[in-house]
Amino acid sequence: MHVTVSTTAGRVRGRRGEVVTAFMGVPYAAAPFGPRRLRPPEPPEPWTGVRDAFVPGPSAPQPGYLPAMASLLEEAVEPGEDCLSVNVWTPAPGRTGGRLPVMVWIHGGAFRNGAGSLPSYDGARLAAEGVVCVTLNYRLGAEGFLLLPDGTSNLGLLDQIAALEWVRDNIAGFGGDPDNVTVFGQSAGAISITALLTMPRARGLFRRAVTQSGAGHHSHPEDIARRVTERLAALAGAEPTREGLAAVPPERLVAADGALGRDIAQATDPGQWGESAGGGTTVLPVVDGTTLPERPIDALAGGAGRDIDLLTGTTSDEFRLFLVPLGIGPRITDEVLHGFLAGFGLDPVEARGTYAAAHPGATPGDLLSAAMSDHAYRIPALRVAEARAAHGADTFVYEFARPSPVLDGALGACHMAEIGFVFGNLSDPLAGPDAPRELSDALRGAWVSFARTGRPDGDGGPGGTLPPWPPYADRRLVMRWGDGALRTHADPGAATRQLWERLRHPLPSGAHAAGSRP
């Protein structure tokens, strides 16, 4: 059965299931190519009649994953120019008085891969719990995150804001409450959301946020952003201007971005590339002083976003997703490990001993993974919670600890391991066979409860009543999922956390150390 809903650009026809109706590939902005290439998003072209919304729109141009990772991660559908679209799942289509909570998903993929239409992000199970679920695409790589000489930057973030404006203007027709919007996202999506918390253009567009494995440190100051643009343009054989880059076919920019990642990975001076040192990312949100006035963690420390409810967290073994499939772990010696630890600003002997005590029997590769997980994910998330607590803003913190059984359990509770459980889609590649449905029900219930009430333990959810989940605050309380009875733990991993006591802090107010990595 089909259902029709009106939007500001025209009417769309969705497909109704037993409980939920899905509207796929609805444009929220015009195709960002041709004369609109490398420019801020513009409203979609209106249409007459009723537009079928049965299949997702094209994904943004992207390289896909390395062969060693491809079996573990879902690849986006065929890229195309008309890539700025949303997908909507709703239990109450056409009920403008439905006033259901709205959950808007911003996907990850290192700012170079991904799409809102991946199977793991299917929002039907979330919508069946009584929310309107929206997923979106945004521009990636060079198309979305270069700093151009005329000051244009953060086009991918502006796309996300345009999608949230579409939600504000249209979601009531799908049964959602435009005044009760929660943005949730993982990795690059969570980094994006942390930036949105501090962006003037995003104010008032959402009330709550969930950031999974991404926080507020990962951005580029202007000097590094200019270096990224200039080097990427050179690799693409173009002038580093809007006109020069817009003349390059998208696939050549994608290839140049990949080449830049290899350049960054081989750089001998890590400070040359700031938070992209190592090559895991190339482009990042740009602190341009206009669209993104400050590095997000610094803005949060100054009080930005304190009126928005926040749930944040990480997985226990984030970095194993990157070390294990590529076979890097066995090649890590103690000498290499000490070099990395010193590069982070840690005392390598003390840090190695502390991580080894926390991970008995671990190899140097295992210890590197634990330290990298802390540097890139856990410590930045805790710095966000600490910064908000200083302004009286509650933050609920979690750790997802259920190990993935994939690759004989070698991945542990790695980056992305929680996503299928949040959405209730246990065919996710990292969930593995016989994934516990009750864990998914409880986790999904907490996310839905947070979207509805601002507290993850507010109404129990489909898995039954959750135990009390107080905010992080002075006791450093963290809810651990998937490793036994569900409960909060006070300062889990305290010994390794304390190694970073002087590191990864927000800059003092007014201080702008270009390219610094405190």
Characterization of the model:
- This protein is an alpha/beta fold.
- It has 16 helices and 13 strands.
- A hairpin with a 2-residue loop joins strand 1 (2-7) and strand 2.
- The longest helix is centred in the last third of the chain and has 26 residues, at 364-389.
- Residues 459-464 and 512-518 have low confidence and may be disordered.
N→C terminal distance? 56 Å
**N-to-C SSE series?**
EEEEHEEHEHHEHEHHHHEHHHHEHHEEH
Point out poorly predicted stretches: 459-464, 512-518
Considering DSSP H and I runs of 4 or more, what fraction of the residues is helical? 25-40%
Number of strands: 13
What's this, in brief?
The protein has 518 residues and is of the alpha/beta class. It contains 16 helices and 13 strands.
Topology:
Blueprint: E1 2-7, E2 10-16, E3 21-27, E4 50-52, H1 67-70, E5 85-90, E6 100-106, H2 124-128, E7 132-136, H3 141-145, H4 155-170, E8 176-186, H5 188-196, E9 208-212, H6 222-236, H7 242-246, H8 250-265, H9 296-301, E10 309-315, H10 320-323, H11 334-343, H12 348-358, H13 364-389, E11 395-400, H14 419-423, H15 437-453, E12 477-481, E13 487-490, H16 494-499
Helix pairs in contact: 6-8, 11-12, 11-13
InterPro entries: AB_hydrolase_fold, AChE-related_enzymes, CarbesteraseB, Carboxylesterase_B_AS
Protein name: Carboxylic ester hydrolase
Enzyme class: hydrolase
